[in-house]
Amino acid sequence: MADYFRAQTEGVDKNMKTRYEDMGDGSHALVMSVDGSDVGLVAGTEVQIVDAAGNLADVDSIVGAFHTIDVLHHEIHQGTAFFVSFKTVDATPLADNATLIFALTTGAKAIHVISTGMIGGDGEKEVLEGATISGGTATTVYNRNRTSLTATTVTVVRDPTVSAVGTLIGNQFIPGGTGGQTLGGTSGPRNEWVFKSSAVYAIRMTNRSGQVQPASLAIEWYEED
Predict the structure, then answer these.
(1) Is the pTM of this model over 0.85?
(2) To the nearest whole number, what is the mean pLDDT of the chain?
């Protein structure tokens, strides 16, 4: 029994067709397509989604729902997600009005960035595009998939001298209290920035609490193909 096509006559162009694949047992099953490639079929009462290699998608055994993960999680699995972080030494917290800075010089790829700053009191976090920097401490970038050998295209230094801020594209207050009323605060945006390729960005966090405070700054990103 050969595969056949059934013309659609209700609400669609009659030239559009739905493919039903021969299942080899006297029945036919609906085949779905994504970007022109067959990716799934109906077998009995169960929908099975398969890739071009015939691998089945993973579904929940009770309700039959597809397992999905968010984009960043997927990029980690792909080995294209990276991470840098720094925490002040316990004996040397961040002085009032002092800064923690990570400067990122991007390579040929645009990168999708999320940063998280934490401080023991009030603070301020800025995102600077096109900053002019010098010096700083070279910082190791870690691939978040520790089984991957893929290296980042981004160069990172910590606490460089910023001689020109470029364009201030993000400025956030971190509420954490001042004086004896400090409770600490966190700044971690829900949505990412997309940084341009071949550019310099600085993410700077400043202690505004009026006294020394422990602080940390972490940057995570994934790189476009």
Answers:
(1) no
(2) 81
